[in-house]
Amino acid sequence: MITFKVDKILNNSLVLSKNSDNNEVILMGKGIGFNAKVGDLLDAEEIEKCFVLQQITDIQGYLNLIESLPDDYIELTKFLLDYASKTLQTTFRETLFFTLLDHLNYAIERYYSGVVIQNRLLYEVKSFYPKEFEVAKYGITYINQRLNISLPEEEAGNIAFHLVNGQSHQQTMQHTLLSVKMLKDIFNIIQFNFAIRIDKKSLHYSRFLTHMQFFIQRIFEQKQLQSDNDFVFQQVIRQYPDEFKCANVIKKYLINQLNITISNEEILYLILHIIRIVH
């Protein structure tokens, strides 16, 4: 049976140890630090999560944070991530636990200080990431009940950002925020060009939103769709000149925002989705 030696006790649920590669790790488990002593051995079955420290930026800052926080904050962060992983049927980067714990701590500090920071992208988060927002909203309700506080709905929007960001191994929080802004602007471009109001409850909207989210992710990861076959592209732009014109406006907007080139294959799929959403 695999065992871990306790090198340092951080709190009732977290201890420092080393793995089989002699890398420092943080071990998480209910009560594993309670009444433990340095040098004690822990069985692998007692451990719920294992964080490899060399994979985490600014780990010393997070270690200091963990040692200063109540156990409730650790448990609430773990509960929220477990619930999110199960509900969204996804896995998160290991570092999300620490960034979310840090955010939760500051959110509670702001609450007790009476400081309210408005989330100006709250409406867009609700629209573009409804599943993550509902999970975050449930988490805020649970946290409020456990701690007898009243964190506002804006915090659900902030946590949703972290959940979206934590699902990608390459996307940064800056990219997540920029993605939301660009999605909002792209929908506004389409609505303006065709003088319409897009039905955000329609299936075409949902499909277009999903396409754009993956499109923007491909841009950030430099994995745009490519094709040497120009025949279909030329056919589509001749048959749908208005949609092509709108796609070009979006293309110029993205080039201006990100200083990139966009392939004809990506523009082709963009046109096809615009056709569906405006007709």
UniProtKB/TrEMBL annotation:
Q: What are the boundaries of the signal sequence?
A: none
User: Which Pfam families does UniProt cross-reference here?
Assistant: CAT_RBD (PF03123), PRD (PF00874)
Question: What's a BP term from Gene Ontology annotated to this protein?
Answer: regulation of DNA-templated transcription
> Transmembrane helix among the record's keywords?
no
InterPro entries given in the database record? BglG_antiterminators, CAT_RNA-bd_dom, CAT_RNA-bd_dom_sf, PRD, PRD_sf
> Where on the tree of life does the source sit, at the highest rank?
Bacteria
Q: Which SUPFAM superfamilies match?
A: PTS-regulatory domain, PRD, SacY-like RNA-binding domain
Which species is this UniProt entry from? Gilliamella apis
An MF annotation (GO) of this entry: RNA binding
Q: Which residues form the PRD domain?
A: 68-173, 174-279
Q: Which PROSITE patterns match?
A: PRD_2 (PS51372)
What name has this protein been given in UniProt? Antitermination protein BlgG
Chain coiled-coil ranges = none
The answer, when asked if Transferase is one of the entry's keywords, is: no
**UniProt keyword annotations, A-Z:** Repeat
